[in-house]
Amino acid sequence: MTYIIKPKFHHPKLPTNKLGYTHRDYEGTVSTLCAGCGHDSISGAIIQACFDMDLPPHRVAKMSGIGCSSKTPAYFLGQSHGFNSVHVRMPSVATGAGLANRDLIYLGVSGDGDSASIGLGQFAHCLRRGVNMVYIVENNGVYGLTKGQFSATADRGSTSKRGASNNDSAIDLVSMALMLGASFVARSFSGDKKQLVPLITAAIRHRGAAFIDVISPCIAFNNHPGSTKSFDYVREHNEAVNALEYMTPREEITVDYSPGTVETVRQHDGSILNLRKLEDDYDPTDRLAAMAFLQERQAEGEVVTGLLYVDPDATDLSERMNTVDAPLNTLGAAELCPGSKAIEAINVGLR
Ligand SMILES: Cc1ncc(C[n+]2csc(CCOP(=O)(O)OP(=O)(O)O)c2C)c(N)n1
Ligand code: SF4
Ligand SMILES: [Mg+2]
């Protein structure tokens, strides 16, 4: 049996959102991951964010590849669309789906093996093209599903469960995402729901490629002393640059902050990101400064988290390609076929 359906009943007084749904309506099947796996906490954060945002589940399309992380879309948003592709191909499937239908919210979930090892090319092109999606990597530094080999995000000198040392340099997906032109870049920790939920919410509202690297310890193969992706290591070295408060376009700013302690960013849909500064000089709209800051802190062994970069005026692939607003499957023959005169004019223009 590959999945277990959750019983439908729930407490009659569970809170509901504006659509009348409880958070149970945003759940999926029972998780078959190891008890305590960081990936399950990320599923919980996605459920929370979608419930809080009153998202109609049918407006979301979950995309994934292969890995323990890529299995997780089965465990949240059971009433949404979904495509579980082969290992690595999530970004290209999401790119195609996004071009065919601009109306859906694309939520891609991947692993560090899926995106940083064999999948690095797909990761890179998806972000540089600005596919309008949320791209989450559940980063544990190992191939969990295939029994814990080092992935390309494992730090040099970190050790496996049996003590073998990793001699290769690590790929830092956040630095790569910044370099590749992603317009929303964040890092978080599966054990910090308070930070992760608003980041997911803001990423869903962002137009363009929104990347979130979530350190998500694999308790079966990479949660020992010597691992830099263990719960203890991340808790001890977590350096948050800001604390994000997400506000919908309708909400009034009611909280009083001391001057200079909060940076306010307004996204294209009017949603407001209030970023309480935890690092005095950190500017999340300065891509180059963010890259330098990350390198400096990484050299000190720190895991920098928070909203690291955002371009609130970003455009996305569909806009740049000027694709049609309506989903392709709703177009009729008249819209799809311009007629022989129009085709002749195009051909003349190409001669
Ligand atoms: C083309 C291809 N190569 C290799 C595999 C074997 N494989 C399955 S999942 C996986 C890595 C999973 O690691 P990651 O993406 O980090 O996910 P995790 O299980 O750690 O969440 C590999 C190598 C495969 N399924 N397909
Ligand atoms: S093997 Fe690791 S990544 Fe996979 S479910 Fe277990 S703890 Fe999670
Ligand atoms: Mg992994």
Radius of gyration: 21 Å
| Uncertain residue segments | none
User: What is the succession of H and E elements?
Assistant: HEHEHEHHEEEHEHEHEEEEHEHHH
* Contiguous helical run count: 12
The span between the termini is 59 Å
Bound molecules: thiamine diphosphate, iron/sulfur cluster, magnesium ion
Beta strand %: 15-25%
The tally of strands reads: 13
**Structural class by sheet pairing and helices:** alpha/beta
Strand order in the largest sheet? 2-1-3-4-8-7-13-9
Q: Mean of the pLDDT scores?
A: 94
Helix content: 25-40%
Q: Give the overall shape.
A: globular
The largest sheet is: 8 strands, mixed
Commentary on this structure:
There is one protein chain. The chain is an alpha/beta fold. It contains 12 helices and 13 strands. The chain has helices at residues 38-52, 68-71, 90-100, 112-117, 120-129, 173-180, 193-205, 231-237, 287-299, 317-320, 333-336, 340-350; strands spanning 60-64, 81-84, 105-111, 133-139, 142-143, 149-150, 184-189, 209-215, 238-240, 242-247, 262-266, 272-277, 303-310. The strands form 3 sheets. It has an 8-stranded mixed sheet, sandwiched between helices. The radius of gyration is 21 Å and the shape is globular. The N and C termini lie far apart (59 Å). The model has no long low-confidence stretch (mean pLDDT 94). Bound molecules: thiamine diphosphate, iron/sulfur cluster and magnesium ion.
